[in-house]
Write the structure tokens for this entry.
Amino acid sequence: MAKFLGPKLKLSRRENFDLYLKSGIKDINLKCNIKKLPGQVNLNKIRLSDYALQLREKQKVRRIYGILEKQFKNYYKKANRLKGSTSINLLQLLELRLDNIIYRMGFSSTRSEAKQLISHKLILINNKIVNIPSYKVLLNDIIKVNNKFINHNIINFAIKMFKKRDKPNWLNVDHNILQGYLLRLPKRSDIYFNINEQLIIELYSK
């Protein structure tokens, strides 16, 4: 699937769920009726098949993390090869993406913004520029904003908005020096949005 370039609120309405694609400066419920499909009837009147439910759950998670279908399926395959629960492995791999870590640390207001910061070489890993949003962050990695951009408007605004968000207790971040690192690997309980990852596993297991 190609990158979606339309209004981001439509995606959240399509999934009947806040996909965290906007900065959060204004409550999404004040912007639109998230319980109603764009241009269609109320979701409560629609009965979905098991396959449709599985597909919608996959689309929801894929859009939260801003990942295209081929890449998302590759994450599933990798998660399936790892020891332990495939569903937990999948979510952990997604959470450890650099763009997600930048968002979780509060250096960006959205994951889409995080991708831009990384692509524009604003982010350092262990004092080296990393411009790959999908880079997998490791436990010993030190993530830091390039000193040249410590007063960047996007970053300063994101830090202000960060106060309104849940603070990940598996990350250590110092906004005074714009630096952070992993305290531990994320657990399922650390992922606060309401998703049923098992439906995704059932979809890909067919």
Remarks:
- The chain has a mean pLDDT of 87.
- The chain has nine helices and five strands.
- Strands lie at 123-125, 128-129, 143-145, 171-174, 179-182.
- The two ends are 20 Å apart (CA to CA).
